[in-house]
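One chain is below:
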Amino acid sequence: MLTWVEGVLYGAGGGLVVEAVVTFGRLHAWQQARHAARAAAEALPQLGTYIDPPADALAALFRIVLGGAAGWLLHGELAGVFAAVAVGASAPAVLAQMGSATTVAEALQAGAAPGSAPGSAPGAVPATAPTAPVPPPAAASPTAPVAPGAAPATPVAPAPTQPGPPGLDQAQGEATP
């Protein structure tokens, strides 16, 4: 378990790693465009076409802050540095998921009980269809052919019964009359 300071620092580091990867992707796209333009003897594209410093810096700052916030919120659940960096890297998605979680009280206030069918009255118990009992599987003989892709069935031996006190049916685990 990490302290809250470690959670914040490693979470922010995870956000920084993701922003570095995003920036590298933009630089790589710029590099590829320059190579293609050079090969076609065209004008070389400017770096400003691929990177907008004020907007990208602000987005990087918020990604780092969100990574630190996620690390702080989840520091008690994080077992190591790698987990904290992963939480920081995925902070926008993690925090959005946590923010959109619906509590049971909110669901009941909205009029839909968990598990109820649409259009049913709030608090109504959903009807369930009766189910037929499932027969036990037949024991396959060890020499029976097995269909391709199917696992061979192994016969199950009955559980051995041990003598117990009189009046106790061991096979059923209950008292006899």
About this structure: The chain has a mean pLDDT of 76. Helices lie at 4-39, 53-73, 81-89, 91-99, 104-109.
